[in-house]
Amino acid sequence: MSTDGLAKTHNRAALLFLSPALLLICVFVAYPVAYAGWLSLFQWDGASAPIFVGAGNILRLAADSVFWSSLGRNLLVALSAIVFQVFLALAIAYCLVRIVPAFGRIFLFFYLVPVMVSEICIGLLWRFMYNPYFGLVNAALKLAGLDSLKRGWLGESDTAFTAVVVVMSFTYLGLYVLLFTSAVRSVPESVYEAAEIDGAGDFRKFFSITIPMVWDAVRANSLLAIIGSLKTFSLVFVLTNGGPSHASEVVSTYLYKMGFSSFQMGYAATIGFAQMVLTALAAWIVFRFLKRKGDA
């Protein structure tokens, strides 16, 4: 068989094996995205006949202050994820692998517990902890003599969003610790030994060796954190449902309310489509920003 014939045979075989995945992508990704884009051109309550409004929903979205404030909170969640999940997880992973390796497995287990528990359960647990009357947070503040700091954490506009961000950081930190632990262990021991000979301490080795050597993992985990932050829903929905008065609203909870509470399906589809486009754009920007010098 000629080289061209062999290549065609291999291509057909590859296409045959890829066809189930391509079919799933078309059914569960491409079609919903296309349908959301089509539905965004209509005003529809989910029951009656759709009314074509053209760019009406897009113009409404552009002037919707609740949407833009919700998007701003998503961006703040993404920023906090980079700092309190990705970077902190890398520092913790370095400590578990390089500083306290004897207790690394035990601590890693405790960090992973929130990852293994349902987000709904975590949200309900933290609602109990934030309870203004018998919650553990206010009880701890009272025990420490800080009664003036006690709050109705999820019921006050100035603390609700911060309280939600704390829960998110606690929930997802363990996942990134696990991913970075594997990356840090892959760094050759000889590199650290050479640094020790030159007199480098743990702080210098972390910033001068570990971070550059695991930069691909940093980039990948940052991308995961950004995407997850821009589409976060469960914890916000359980903890505050976007309240009070939209103080902790994010794009996904606003979309849910428009679609399933106000029955504005066309406008909800517009929000979802915009969320997808903005998430893809943010992911591309982060991927390009974190690219190594010299990478294509």
TrEMBL record:
Organism encoding this protein: Rhizobium lusitanum
Lineage summary: Bacteria, Pseudomonadati, Pseudomonadota, Alphaproteobacteria, Hyphomicrobiales
Family per similarity comment: Belongs to the binding-protein-dependent transport system permease family.
One example of a Gene Ontology biological process annotation: transmembrane transport
Name of the protein described by the UniProt record: Raffinose/stachyose/melibiose transport system permease protein
Keyword 4Fe-4S: no
Keyword vocabulary terms for this entry: Cell membrane, Membrane, Transmembrane, Transmembrane helix, Transport
Span of domain ABC transmembrane type-1: 71-286
Source taxon at top rank: Bacteria
TM annotation in the entry: 12-34, 75-96, 108-129, 160-180, 223-243, 263-287
